[in-house]
Design brief:
Shape: elongated
Oligomer: single chain
Largest sheet: 5 strands, antiparallel
Radius of gyration: 26 Å
Distance between the termini: 37 Å
Number of domains: 2
Number of strands: 7
Strand order of the largest sheet: 2-3-1-7-6
Order of helices and strands: HHHHEEEEEEEH
Length: 253
Amino acid sequence: MGFFDILNPVFTGIETYFLSWIPAWARVAIYGLGSGIVTMLLYAKFSNQDALTQGKLTSKEALSALRKLDPEAEFDVALATMRKAIAASLRQAKNAAIPALWASLPLIFVLVWLDNSYSYLAPPAGSNVLALTEPFVPLQESDGVHRTEGQTYSLTWPESGQIELKGLSGDLIISIPSSTHVPLIHKRKWWNLLIGNPAGYIDESAPISSVEFTHTPRELIGSGPHWLRSWLVFYFAVLMAAAVAIKVKFKIA
């Protein structure tokens, strides 16, 4: 478990006990709505609203002076006016960027959990899932593991338990939980200190570095372009709408 995974049990509990009765798109909409509200309230809390309001007026005045600048004005005058306009814009961006960064950090916890929960469908018991190892190594075939015509293996997904991939000598390479629907399992990387892999990791001594599975992407809606059907687009659309509504309603600079 990585740092940004520590709230996963909380989100899982909320979904299991309070939101399991509503459709997936509605649950994602609730997460987006809550994220938008929390993000904008945190931004208002951490930002200097007086400085931002004054900075907006200063930027408008500087841009107005730049637009009204006489084309035949002295070079020094034109340069000073441009510097003033650029400095005002940069100052405003600085005043807004740091609070926005702090306000957006909590979103990472939500995004990590949503990615693990809503990106792919769990394979039904008895279905066949293709697995590709990197690099390719011969595996021991069994009732649930069969090599295809290429360099992939077909795995018969069990209802419960583990899927074991073994080398030809019988040595266990990796044991995969049947409950997982993560499309990639790999050896532990440095970034897993921040974001973990819920399916676990491949041992450092294993002859492969990763295993990729052909899990089915999860779609929240059944129509429209495929890129519009994922949780990510739907989540950010609701988040942005909620954030803008809060910003306008409470006149946040």
